[in-house]
Amino acid sequence: AALLIITMLSASPASAAAILIINGSSGTSEPGTTSSITTQLTNLHTAVGNTVTVSDGVPADLSGFAQVWDLRFSNVFALTSSVISQYLSFLQAGGGMFVMGENSGFATRNNSIIDLINQAGGGSLGFQTPGDAQIVYAPFDGPNAVSNINYSAAGGLNGFGTGQWITSNAGGTAGTGVAWGVGSLANAPAGALTTIFDVNFLQTNANAGSQALAANLVRFVNVQVNNPAVPEPGTWAMMLIGFGAVGYSMRRARRVKAIPAAA
Predict the structure, then answer these.
(1) CB-based contacts of 157: which residues, under 8 Å, 6+ apart?
(2) Distance from C-alpha of 182 to C-alpha of 69, rounded to nearest angstrom
(3) C-alpha to C-alpha distance for 206 and 103, rounded to whole angstroms
(4) Average model confidence (pLDDT) for the chain?
(5) Of 12, 7, 22, which is closest to residue 52 (Cα–Cα)?
(6) What pTM value is reported for the model?
(7) How far apart are CA 53 and CA 216, in angstroms?
C-alpha cells in the first residue's frame, strides 16, 4: 500500500511548465509599459515554478511550450491570418493562451483578437467598452481575494460566448476579461484561451486588486493545461485512509495464518 501511494504521488503531473511570453519589445508604442508587464508576468510565473522564455515576436515553433502569453497591445501587432492559424493549432494541441487587448484606441489589435476567438469557436463577439469599475467572477476572485476591480481606460467585449466572464460591468452586458477553459472552444476543445482588454492591470505598480487578479489568472491557466488531474486534498485523505485499511487487513490476515490450529 505504501509503495502504491508513493507511486501515485510521483506520477501526479507537476505544476511547473515552459511558458512563452511574447512582448513585441522592439515595436511597442509604450516601451515602459511593455517592460513593466513583462517583468510582472515573469515574476508571477517564476513564483509558481514555471520556466519563462521572453520573445520579441512569435516563433515559428510553439510546440515546446505549455502556455503562450501574447502581451502585445499596439495596433502594429494585430494578429495576422498566419499567426491566428498558428495560435489555433497551439490551442488544438492542448496549449494555454492569453492574448492582451486594450481600449478602443487599439481597434486593429482588438479586432484581430476577436477574429481569433471566433475561429477558435468561442462565439461571435464584438468590441464594447464596459466601464472601468467591474465585478470579478469565480474562480478569478481567488485564492488571492478580489471581488471588484477598477481598470484604467479599459476596452472589452459585448459577451462571453461559450466561455465565462473574468470581469464585467454590474449588469453583465459587457466585460473586459473573458476566459475559455478546456472544453469550451468548439474548434479547439483541448485548449484554454483567456483575454483581458487592459494592459495596466498587469503592471508592476498596479493596484492591489489588479495584482491579485493577475496572480489568479496565472493560476487559472496553470490549472487548465498544466495540472488538471491532481486530486483535491480531501480526495488524497480518503485514498490514504483506504490504503491504510487495506494494509491493516493484510497484516491481520498474515497473523491469523501464522497461529497454529488447536489439536
Answers:
(1) 114, 125, 126, 127, 128, 174, 175, 178, 197
(2) 17
(3) 17
(4) 87
(5) 22
(6) 0.82
(7) 21
